[in-house]
Write a structure and sequence with these properties.
By secondary structure, the chain is an alpha/beta fold. The chain contains 8 helices and 14 strands. A 5-stranded parallel β-sheet has the order 2-1-3-6-7, sandwiched between helices. It starts with a strand and ends with a strand. The model has no long low-confidence stretch (mean pLDDT 90). Bound molecules: calcium ion. Calcium ion (CA) binds next to strand 4.
Length: 225
């Protein structure tokens, strides 16, 4: 699951990135309203965290512009502005939650998860197909009831394949969900992760398997034999 952090104070960006990455998210960070507008336009983020005092303008404008374009992702405002009017303005402009600095990273992570769990949010509680289940909140996978240890990227790939069970997932979509903007994936990174994931599913005797659709991507489906 990929999040956008819009914040100009590097110390806070570092805290947010560490906390959110540890919670299993892929995180991009930008520090101006212009970069934020651009990023929200180009990438379908699952949620965003928005500072209001940005060097080139007011974060509220980012929020208003995104909503005017129909963006429905949950947006949490994170700001030092604690006046009631500021909160009301933020919520009226389409923010889903509002957290005042200084904040506890634990609270921020749990609020983001709560937003993603809302109906229509990206966090359905448990995904499953065949005898494979993935708990999107605990980030745990079982095959035939037994826990299977996956790397963060393997788990992320499996999550996207489960969400699109029976449909082809283009390789670019997996890459987009897997890598933050500041991380250029190696050209064979996705196939390597898929290879490991496939082996772990087979070893666990999964009743579903990952098919490679040449030149397009991957398909998770019931085993054919
Ligand atoms: Ca700021």
């Amino acid at each position: 699951m990929r999040l956008l952090v819009i914040e100009d104070e590097q110390r806070i960006v570092d805290v947010l990135k560490t906390g959110l990455v540890n919670a299993g998210f892929i995180v991009d960070a930008v520090n101006t309203t212009a970069d934020a507008d651009n990023a929200l336009n180009c990438i379908s983020y699952d949620a965003a965290i928005l500072d209001l005092g940005l060097p080139d303008g007011d974060g509220l404008n980012v929020l208003k512009l995104a909503r005017s374009h129909g963006a429905q992702l949950p947006i949490l405002i994170l700001t030092a502005r604690d006046a009631i009017e500021d909160r009301v303005q933020g919520l009226d402009a389409g923010a889903d939650d509002y957290l005042i600095k200084p904040f506890a990273i634990k609270e921020l992570v749990s609020r983001i998860k709560a937003l993603l769990r809302r109906p229509g949010g990206a966090l359905g509680a448990v995904l499953n197909a065949g005898n494979v289940t993935l708990d999107t909140i605990g980030r745990e996978v079982t095959v035939a009831g037994n826990p299977v240890v996956l790397s963060r990227r393997e788990l992320s790939i499996l999550e996207h394949m489960l969400r699109r069970f029976g449909r082809v997932v283009p390789r670019e979509v997996i890459e987009e969900k897997l890598y933050a903007l500041d991380h250029e994936p190696e050209s064979n990174a996705v196939p390597v992760h898929v290879h490991h994931l496939r082996r772990k599913l087979t070893e666990g005797q999964a009743t579903v398997e990952i098919h490679t659709v040449r030149g397009i991507g991957y398909l998770l489906a019931e085993q054919t034999q």
